[in-house]
Structures are given as structure tokens and as C-alpha cells.
Amino acid sequence: MAKRKASFEEDAETMQKMNEEKSEETKNLSALKQLIFLGRREHEYDIEGILFKMVTLTSGQQRSMMQEIMSLSDDQRVAGMREAILSRSVIAANGVLLENLYEGDDADSLTDAQKRSLIISEMQFSIVEQLFVKYNELTAIEEESEENLKK
After folding, report:
1. CA distances (Å), 9 to each of 1, 16, 22, 23, 62, in order?
2. CA 96 centroid distance within chain
3. pLDDT tens digit string along 56-101?
4. Which stretch of DSSP H or E encloses residue 50?
5. Residues contacting 83, CB < 8 A, separation 6+
6. How far is CA 5 from CA 10, 18, 131, in A?
């Protein structure tokens, strides 16, 4: 019987160690998520009665955007940059994910990123301009926050 008790105590200790390790893993995962989203800004803007939800870009999104832009001709880069940024920054319109608004016949063969890009490219120029102004405001808020963190 004493042997069973020792075994039970060892099992309890093992379970406690496993729980502590899981707790530490959870803390590490939580810290990783905090680092990923540190500095991220998200805001909704009303443009012409449509509520657009926008976020700042991650460094990976900015890198892929630059790769996309550099593949364009010099003439296409300015307009292409706005569309590339907005297709990553605008995530929803009136609460609906932007990619879910795409209605083309080729919807099944396109990625979500391609759908968002096509939607932005089909918008009226004035709306794209207004969205880009809002994106610049959003990143200006981000830069102010970063400066406050440095103080």
C-alpha cells in the first residue's frame, strides 16, 4: 500500500510539473502574441456611409508589398503602391471581410489577398484616395505612439 501512495505522489508531482510547463508555454505564447501585435493600430473610418476597418501593416506585409511594387513599371508604381497597401490594410467594409465581397466567377481560384487587391483596384479613385489618407492618419498615430514609448 505504501508503494501505491509513493506512486500516487510521484504521479501528482509529475502532473504538477507538466501543468507548470504548460503554464510557461502559455505565457511564452502570450508574450509572442503581445510582441506581434505591439504597436498595431486598428480603426474604423466612415467614408461615404461605408464603415471601413483598417489596420497598420506588419513588417512582413510591408516587405511583401514592396516586392509586389518593385515588380511594376515606374509608371504603375504610384497607383500600385496605394492599392497594395490598402489591400493589406483594409480588412472589412461594413463588418464584412473585404475578400468576402468579391463576386467574380474566378473566386474559387483566387487567394484572399488577390480578391482584396481586385476589390481595391475596382473602387472609385476618390474612395481609394480617401482610404489612403486614412491609412496615413493611422500610421501617423502609430508613429506618435512609438515616440511616446521611447520617452
Report:
1. 13, 10, 20, 21, 54
2. 15
3. 988 888 898 898 889 888 888 877 889 999 999 999 999 999 999 9
4. strand 50-55
5. 117, 120, 121, 128
6. 9, 20, 68
Q: Write the DSSP assignment of 82-144 as a string of letters.
A: HHHHHHHHEEEETTEEGGGG---TTGGGS-HHHHHHHHHHHS-HHHHHHHHHHHHHHHHHHHH
Beta bridge partners of residue 90, listed in sequence order? 54
Give CA–CA dist 28/44, Å, rounded. 31
* Residue in the block written with cell 506581434: 36
β-bridge pairing 90-93 and 96-97: antiparallel
- CB-CB contact of 102 with 110 (8 Å): yes
0.85 cut: is pTM over it? no
pLDDT exceeds cutoff 80 at 131 = yes
Cα distances (angstroms) measured from residue 109 to each of 65, 84, 103, 123, 133: 21, 20, 12, 21, 32
Closest CA to 84 of 132, 140, 126, 136: 132
